[in-house]
Backbone:
């Protein structure tokens, strides 16, 4: 009897063990992959002051932000950090900063930094005198505008023209339509040195350091006739008086040049007598001069800047209202002067040197064709007072000048 022998292919034992181990690894790997795929990640999202928490099966931060409903701008960025099984996303929003400098307006993105840092990043350096619209240590914010103002100073030397003044005097010796130019006007020239400050190229201040007159200005002097004639109102007896007592015009009002009494210098005190006419324009009493102060008859103490000795005459406006060169009404206390000696607007205190009267406080408001140099023309209420005053030497205390 023949038996068929069966042949079996049997693997060695060690190969079987290897196959078993490989199967186990494959199963574990598949199980781990499944757990990883189906596990949720927890995200903590910080967007400025807003903090949001969300869970996502995705490990992509962009998808987590989308799920949380947070949108990013084109220039916005974020950072991520994983700690204690939590994913942290910190959003950095772009700040749009406007910088104005050197005539240009630039919009630059920032993510929160000091103004100084931003300017350094832009290559903008501040000069010692330059100004900026905010503190350099201030932190940037969205919509911020930073303006840099360039400051420059320059020392300049230049010349200016001094336009000449024009003085018009009225005289009753000319008819109403007549006029004469006694002195032609001429512009002057002055050399000036100044410190000029510019802000972004535009002048903002100018400090004059020195001035020197190269060519002095010459004032134009014109005499014209007046329509108000006061000759008919003169006292007929006055026509027989000596020639220097004939009234002359001063700024459209009547002036007397009569000389009466004696003239003498007064350095200590000046006394006066009462006026002979009623309603006198001046007062009586005495004035004491001590140092740079005078004490009036009423006891008032006045400080003065300087003192002048002047030739004094009187004028009035009988029968009409006169106006001074400065536009004020002619009146007692408004006198005429030579503005080259006494500036218009100066406050004065005047007494006669011969003790005739104290004219007192007055203001330089008028000029006159005959008032030249150290001369004053005093307004009086009446023509008789002008004749009585005549021409007298006066002490003029300059209390103040404009």
Residues:
């Amino acid at each position: 009897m023949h038996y068929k022998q069966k042949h079996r292919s049997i693997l060695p034992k060690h190969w079987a063990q290897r196959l078993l181990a490989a199967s186990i690894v494959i199963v574990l790997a598949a199980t781990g992959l499944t757990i990883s795929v189906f596990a949720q990640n927890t995200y903590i999202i910080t967007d400025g002051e807003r903090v949001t928490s969300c869970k996502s099966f995705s490990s992509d931060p962009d998808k987590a932000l989308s799920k949380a409903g947070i949108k990013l701008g084109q220039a916005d960025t974020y950072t991520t950090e994983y700690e204690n099984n939590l994913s942290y996303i910190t959003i950095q929003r772009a700040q749009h900063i406007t910088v104005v400098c050197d005539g240009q307006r630039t919009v630059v993105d920032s993510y929160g930094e000091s103004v100084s840092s931003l300017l350094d990043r832009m290559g903008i350096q501040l000069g010692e005198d330059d100004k900026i619209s905010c503190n350099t240590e201030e932190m940037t914010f969205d919509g911020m505008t930073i303006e840099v103002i360039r400051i420059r100073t320059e020392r300049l030397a230049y010349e200016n023209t001094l336009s000449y003044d024009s003085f018009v005097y009225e005289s009753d010796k000319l008819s109403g339509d007549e006029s004469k130019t006694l002195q032609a006007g001429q512009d002057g020239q002055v050399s000036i040195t100044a410190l000029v400050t510019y802000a972004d190229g535009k002048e903002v201040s100018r400090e004059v350091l020195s001035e020197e007159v190269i060519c002095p200005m010459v004032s134009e002097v014109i005499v014209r006739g007046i329509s108000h004639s006061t000759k008919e109102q003169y006292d007929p007896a006055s026509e027989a008086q000596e020639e220097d007592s004939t009234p002359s015009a001063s700024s459209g009002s009547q002036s007397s040049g009569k000389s009466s009494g004696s003239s003498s210098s007064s350095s200590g005190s000046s006394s006066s007598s009462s006026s002979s006419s009623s309603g006198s324009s001046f007062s009586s009493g005495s004035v004491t001069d001590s140092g740079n102060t005078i004490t009036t008859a009423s006891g008032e103490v006045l400080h003065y800047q300087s003192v002048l000795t002047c030739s004094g005459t009187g004028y009035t406006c009988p029968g009409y209202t006169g106006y001074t060169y400065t536009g004020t009404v002619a009146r007692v206390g408004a006198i005429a002067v030579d503005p080259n000696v006494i500036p218009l607007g100066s406050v004065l205190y005047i007494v006669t040197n011969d003790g005739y009267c104290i004219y007192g406080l007055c203001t330089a408001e008028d000029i006159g064709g005959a008032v030249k140099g150290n001369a004053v023309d005093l307004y009086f209420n009446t023509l008789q007072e002008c004749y009585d005053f005549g021409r007298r030497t006066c002490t003029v205390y300059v209390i103040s000048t404009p």
Observations:
- The first strand starts at residue 41 and ends at 47.
